[in-house]
Amino acid sequence: MKVPQSISLALAEPALPAVLPAPEPRIDLLVNNAQAREVFLAIVADTPYSMLMHPDVSGTLSVTLRSVTVPQALDAIRDVYGYDYKIQGRRITVYAPSLQTRIFTVNYPNSPRLGTSDLRVSGSGSLSSSSSSSTNSGSTTNSSNSSASNQTQHGEGSSVSTSSKTDLWAELAAAVRGLVGTGPGRSVITSPQAGIMAVRAMPEELRQVESFLNAAQIAVERQVMLEAKIVEVELRDGYQSGIDWSALKNGGDATAAMGVLSGNGSSNTLVRGVQSNLPGFAAGTLALADGVALPTAGAGLFGLAFASSGFQAVLGFLETRGDVQVLSSPRIATLNNQKAVLKVGSEESFINGYDAGTVGTANTTGTVSTPKFERFFSGISLDVTPQIDDGNNITLHVHPSVTNVTTKNLTYSNSDGTSATIPTASSSVNESDTMVRIQDGNIVAIGA
Q1: What's the pLDDT band for 267 if we cut at 50, 70, 90?
Q2: Contact (CB, 8 A) for 274 and 256
Q3: Is the pLDDT of residue 425 over 70?
Q4: Higher per-residue pLDDT: 228 or 305
Q5: Are 348 and 375 in contact (CB under 8 A)?
Q6: What is the largest CA-CA distance in the chain?
Q7: Cβ atoms of 110 and 193 closer than 8 Å
Q8: Distance from C-alpha of 332 to C-alpha of 86, rounded to nearest angstrom
């Protein structure tokens, strides 16, 4: 006959209680100008710890500590007087304040990276040719001299240029050298190939280096998975004038903003959000509330930013206004502050000029002109650079681009009255470049 398990458990002897470790002994330590060696011996008296001291341990200590454990007492003395120690089991070794060498492990590849992202909008005006130029963040200023010139070039209406350079090992080495200083005997040696850093400094400085490297390791190991949808919408007849984004309200779950950045710090304006919880900013604002600077030069841009907890609502809304075509649904994973680039499409060669031929003479044979080719990309590209903070908030630089290059015949007149036709490249580009700040799991839609 089989006894039910519930009855067996009820009749079983109760399990023995878990043996809890003995609590750390607590001591009171009150000394004034006492010899350091005698103080350390007094700390472990009547405790299960053993004490070893380096021969160079000397000096006097003045300490008032009440109801502290042995490790707490040693920590307090180390923070004030610099006596370092090491606990191995029940054995404590105390060292005199002196230069020490520690080896730290840094898990990061030795691969410096350099990335750039540019967006330019050509203006209709023209500028005189210039001999020098200077570049500022987000704008370009051309300085022209007084030399006579009839050459003209199209002015740049607006431009955004973003660059990023990542060389973590060089940055860490420079930062650690700043922490330990350049005093006698101090040194920092890095081996990116082995993933280690050797630092020789005082114990207090080594503890600061350890805290810094731990914080840096946590920051660079943050990773984000970005899922994007690049869509193209052909509006129906009733919506050719545009989309009323205020109709996208979804119970307060979505926020959106659209407007114009004039490119002038004295007249920047932005239409306030269609939801009351997304404020705009007043004219003349130079930066957003989160510190993102607005452009200071250029002819202005128009754009839309939309945030929601689900992207399907956006697609469903757009489908009621026109024909929606999903061009690409890329998914990119990248580390903190690392640029990720996705490129889907094809490259074709187009004629962009000719090398002039030569005219034949009685003694030489003429040569025909030969075309010069340049490769143009058609397709979808997306580059993103995230910055992730402790609260899983993400500041994201996004640069999507949809390019379609076709052949267009160009006809021109020659000086002899004849005309010629050559095939050239005609490019259609939908492109945006912006920075947004969102929380983990949210969706942002950007369009122009």
Answers
A1: very low
A2: yes
A3: yes
A4: 228
A5: yes
A6: 122
A7: yes
A8: 45
Q: What is the mean pLDDT of the chain?
A: 74
**Does the domain formed by 23-97 have CATH 2.40.40.20?**
no
Least confident stretch, 13-27, 49-63, 75-89, 255-269 = 255-269
Task: With beta carbons less than 8 A apart as the criterion, state whether 293 and 286 touch.
Answer: yes
pTM: 0.62
Q: What average pLDDT score do residues 76-94 get?
A: 92
pLDDT of residue 237 exceeding 80, the answer is: no
The pairing of beta strand 322-328 with beta strand 419-431: unpaired
**pLDDT tens column, 47-59:** 999 999 999 999 9
Say which CATH topology domain 99-114+161-221 has: Ribosomal Protein S8; Chain: A, domain 1 (3.30.1370)
Taking only Cα atoms into account, the Rg of the chain, rounded to an integer number of angstroms, comes to 35
> Does residue 386 contact residue 347 with C-beta atoms inside 8 Å?
no
Whole-angstrom distance between the N-terminal and C-terminal Cα of the chain?
A: 79
* The three-state (H, E, C) secondary structure of the chain, written as one string: CCCCHHHHHHHCCCCCCCCCCCCCCEEEEEEEEEEHHHHHHHHHCCCCCEEEECCCCCCEEEEEEEEEEHHHHHHHHHHHHCCEEEEECCEEEEECCCCEEEEEECCCCCCCEEEEEEEEEEEEEEEECCCEEEEECCEEEEECCCCCCCCEEEEEEEEEEEEEEECHHHHHHHHHHHHHCCCCCCEEEEECCCCEEEEEECHHHHHHHHHHHHHHHHHHCCEEEEECCEEEEEECHHHCCCCCHHHHCCCCCCEEEEEEECCCCCCCCCCCCCCCCCCCCCCCCCECCCCCECCCCCCCEEEEEEEECCCHHHHHHHHCCEEEEEEECCEEEEECCCCEEEEEEEEEEEEEEEECCECCCCCCCCECCEEEEEEEEEEEEEEEEEEECCCCEEEEEEEEEEEEEEEEEEEEECCCCCEEEEEEEEEEEEECCEEEEEECCCEEEEEC
Which part of the chain has CATH 3.55.50.30? 23-97
Q: Are 318 and 312 within 8 A, CB to CB? A: no
Instruction: Enumerate the CATH 3.30.1370.120 domain ranges in the chain, comma separated.
Output: 99-114+161-221
Each residue of 317-350: pLDDT tens digit? 677 777 777 788 888 888 998 888 888 888 888 8
Q: Which position has the higher pLDDT, 371 or 216? A: 216
Tell me the angle at which helices 203-220 and 168-180 cross, rounded to the nearest 10 degrees: 160
Q: State the pLDDT at residue 391.
A: 85
